[in-house]
Amino acid sequence: MTIDGNIRVRFAPSPTGMLHIGGARTAIYNWAFARAMGGTFVLRIEDTDPERSTEENTQIILRAMRWLGLDWDEGPEVGGDFGPYFQMQRMPTYQAALEVLKEKGAAYPCFCSKEQLDAERKRAEAEEGGYAGYGGTCRALPAAEAAARIEAGEPHVWRLKVPEGHGPIEFDDAVYGRTSFPADVMDDLVLVRTDGSPTYNFAVVCDDANMGITHVIRGDDHLSNTPRQILIYEALGFDVPTFAHLPRILGPDGKKLSKRHGATNVEDYRDRGYLPDAMVNFLALLGWSLDGETTIIPPDELCRAFSLARITKKDSIFDETKLDWMDGVYIRDMAPEKWFLEAAPWIAQAKADALGVEPGANVQPAAEPGGAQEGAGAPRVPGAGVDGETWQGCLADVEDRKAHFMQVHPLVAERMARFDEIPGKLEYLFWGPNVRIDGKSFKKVLAKEGSRAGEALQLCRGVLADDGVAWEAEALQEQCRALGEEAGIKPRNLFQPLRVAVCGNMVSPPLFESIVLMSRDDVLARIDSVLGLDVA
Ligand code: GLU
């Protein structure tokens, strides 16, 4: 069924947990398909499991969708003509649909107790080598008897009366192609439980039909539900939508992506400093491609180009190295101003981290180059672990010096995969006259026998102290290089000691561009305190 010929799709999460990678990909495909087709993207919350659904999870899902930029045309908070968009508020519609089926004789009450059903299952497993589903005990009950038992208050469920002699249930899946299930192995599935609540299959069909959904795009873990749902559509007399079942997302070990593989929840990626656009691009390519080659497809392009025809049947591997690479591409492409907006809290975190640096020059025991950010750690949210007042101070300072920090973009963007690398990379900007030196860099560069590191530092210090030389990266570098050459010190042996003395490690952002972002006094003070150490 189409309403005004419009494509209508929906994302229908159950708020029993956060928004996971797989769910996010399903949401992205529905959203991008709606946008590409000029259709409508509906968000529906499937909250019928009272024990596991929470309002908090709903909020987390909405927040994650907003963060990804997946705006919905109808659904919670935005409303729409087909609401309500929470299943718990749609109970009367399921009741009405059940009435339709009752009237048609397409549903019947079943009084079999759990014990009876369990016994039937056990017997079938023992005698027939397997349980083929509900045997239909109550299907044949005379209507008058069924009515009397209901009247007497006997607990019962409502089952779909699967038509006898129904041929195979067939549909053209937009991904898997022609798909066929034999109908004679379908037992009479439960539509409404003893407590009056609809089962997933019943509610989803009622909603999809009543909301005019034309395409059901969802994970292939639902493939086995589809023939059952088709039977319900048929019984209700509704058109069957087009189905598109998405292949699975696997971890690098080839097993279904799960918590074992680390973060699987979308907001963990936000907290680790990934960009939402990179995330959407990356997830979109887990099962879809533009042309089999293009890897950078920003969301607006995705919304133009997305098609169901290019969804693959093949499972995809979630490769975080590729995600890091992709995020790096997006970071490099950001306009400095936009970069600053994203980077500000992370830069403030660098400042907060710098507050812990002891006065003078401190050599750290064998820390990794690049600071503590290297390697996977627990997600780190900027400001966590910093007291409120200090944090506000750091953030305000960074935000006040926007033009200054925008200059940092070209220095770090080239080699950055994620925003959470910023604190480790930029802490040195906030050390003032002090410096925290990575132990390995100290050993390899400053303390290395025969390296003439002390001499190199003295030489550079002279240039940096000379107010006759402009405080500009190129001028300072050239002057140092020239004097180094005269003294017979190679540029590398000249600049590495300076880098370690000023920035604390061997892998900092470009040296002189960094130096000019700091004050002359601070830079000289750092060199002086390092010269007070045991330098070669
Ligand atoms: N609430 C279901 C889920 O989260 C939706 C399934 C569907 O799209 O039909 O798995």
Written account of the structure:
The chain is mainly α and 536 residues long. It is built from 22 helices and 13 strands. The strands form 6 sheets. It has a 3-stranded antiparallel sheet. A two-stranded parallel ribbon has the order 1-2. The N and C termini lie far apart (80 Å). The structure holds glutamic acid. Residues 12-14, 46, 204, 218, 222 line the site of glutamic acid.
Structural class: mainly alpha
Bound molecules: glutamic acid
Mean pLDDT: 93
Uncertain runs with pLDDT below 50, 5 residues or more?
369-377
- Main sheet summary: 3 strands, antiparallel
Q: What oligomeric assembly is this protein in?
A: single chain
Question: Into which percent range does the helicity of residues fall?
Answer: 40-55%
User: What's the gyration radius in Å?
Assistant: 32 Å
Widest sheet: strand ordering: 3-4-7
> How many DSSP-defined strands?
13
Q: Which outline best applies?
A: elongated
The end-to-end distance, rounded to whole angstroms, is: 80 Å
Q: How large is the share of residues in beta strands?
A: 5-15%
Q: How many helices in DSSP terms?
A: 22
Q: Layout of helices and strands, plus pairs?
A:
Blueprint: E1 8-11, H1 21-37, E2 40-43, H2 55-68, H3 91-104, E3 107-110, H4 114-128, H5 143-151, E4 157-160, E5 169-173, E6 177-181, E7 190-192, H6 200-210, E8 215-219, H7 226-236, E9 242-246, E10 249-250, H8 266-271, H9 276-284, H10 299-305, E11 316-317, H11 320-333, H12 336-354, E12 361-363, H13 388-400, H14 402-406, H15 409-413, H16 422-426, E13 435-437, H17 439-446, H18 453-465, H19 473-487, H20 491-503, H21 511-515, H22 520-531
Bound molecules: glutamic acid (GLU).
